[in-house]
Amino acid sequence: SLKGKTAVVTGSNSGIGLGIAWELARAGADVVLNSFTDTDEDHALAQKIAGETGVTARYIKADMSKGDECRALIEQAGACDILVNNAGIQHVAPINEFPSDKWDAIIAINLNSAFHTTAAALPMMRKAGWGRVVNIASAHGLTASPYKSAYVAAKHGIVGMTKVVALETAQEPITANAICPGYVLTPLVEAQIPDTMKEYDMSREDVIKNIMLQRQPSKEFATVEQLGGTCVFLCSDAAAQITGTTISVDGGWTAL
Ligand code: NAD
Fold first, then answer.
1. Which domain holds residue 16?
2. DSSP code at position 130
3. Spacing, Cα 41 to ligand 1 middle (Å)
4. Which of 49, 70, 104, 114 could be cross-linked to 57 through a Cys-Cys bond (beta carbons 3.0 to 4.6 Å apart)?
5. What is the mean pLDDT of residues 45-59?
6. Given pLDDT bands bounded at 50, 70 and 90, which one contains residue 206?
7. Is the CB of 158 under 6 A from ligand 1?
């Protein structure tokens, strides 16, 4: 059980981050949810997790595109035994047309934020004598697709940084790993299905199998619960010697 541990999950008011927060809470960890907004709904998510699992759950606003706010999130959390760097955005365009501001935002949120949160959290983990850094990379941390230059650069970057953090903590009871999801059924992806069905005049099943999951050999989405379960595993004693590596949850994508 992760009882008594505090987990900070960046970008966790929706999708994979929220799914991971739920599974960590179900495993007994106190959780800190985060995004750049500060709405009643954001705080209600934390209430719901606390109410259903019995752990302490809080929502802390911090913009992961700003280094000082990344560090402030960890300070405000007060404890950070488990750090899940999940916040991320995407933009798709050929490199010669890729807007500079989009490039900067993707590198800041998908890569730089993990540098700042990790730098702030490691001293706390060392003091506590235990720690887990789990970076949510992507199949695009290991392989590429056209038009995703910033995203692929950031995700390869975070895989590299994960290895360095693992080496710097190798002789301590701290591990650092990256999870590399393929296509995951988040609300964001779900919302694209009806439009794509119209666009291609295809059934829901055909859109999923032939358009969305073209590169995912299993022809099934990974779920946020499966990502959460993988994260809980990396926090377990069984995973104490797993460090500096990647775990793909991609239905065989990177085996191709
Ligand atoms: P999502 O859009 O549902 O979640 C992204 C989260 O990041 C949201 O909670 C959002 O509020 C937050 N966020 C965005 N900008 C932020 C900022 N400036 N500061 C703080 N929080 C911010 O998408 P998701 O699919 O759940 O993605 C989560 C992570 O998983 C991302 O790093 C993404 O690259 C990665 N990923 C997703 C998939 C997929 O198929 N969905 C596949 C591989 C990797």
1. 6-184+222-255
2. -
3. 17
4. 49
5. 98
6. very high
7. no
Q: Is 151 a catalytic residue?
A: yes
For ligand 1, whether the C-beta of 244 sits within 6 Å is: no
Cβ of 232 closer than 6 Å to ligand 1, yes or no, is no
77 shares its domain with 49: yes
In which band, very low, low, confident or very high, does the pLDDT at 205 lie, cut at 50, 70 and 90? very high
Verify that 37 and 59 share a domain, yes or no: yes
- The CATH number that applies at residue 131 is 3.40.50.720
- At 8, is the secondary structure helix, strand, or coil? strand
Tokens matching residue 242: 């797993």
Q: Is position 1 within any domain? A: no
Kindly provide the ipTM of the predicted complex, given to two decimals.
Answer: 0.99
Are residues 198 and 226 both part of a single domain? no
In a domain, 101, yes or no: yes
Q: What atom of ligand 1 comes closest to residue 183's alpha carbon?
A: 40
Ligand 1 centroid from CA 171, angstroms: 32
pTM of this prediction exceeds 0.90: yes
Closest CA to 73 of 61, 82, 89, 84: 61
CA of 122 to the centre of ligand 1 (A): 23
CA-12 nearest atom, ligand 1: 9
Where b means 16+ CB within 10 Å and e means fewer, 2-30 reads beebbbbbbbbbebbbbbbbbbbbbbebb
In the structure, what pLDDT confidence band is assigned to residue 188 with cuts at 50, 70 and 90? Answer: confident
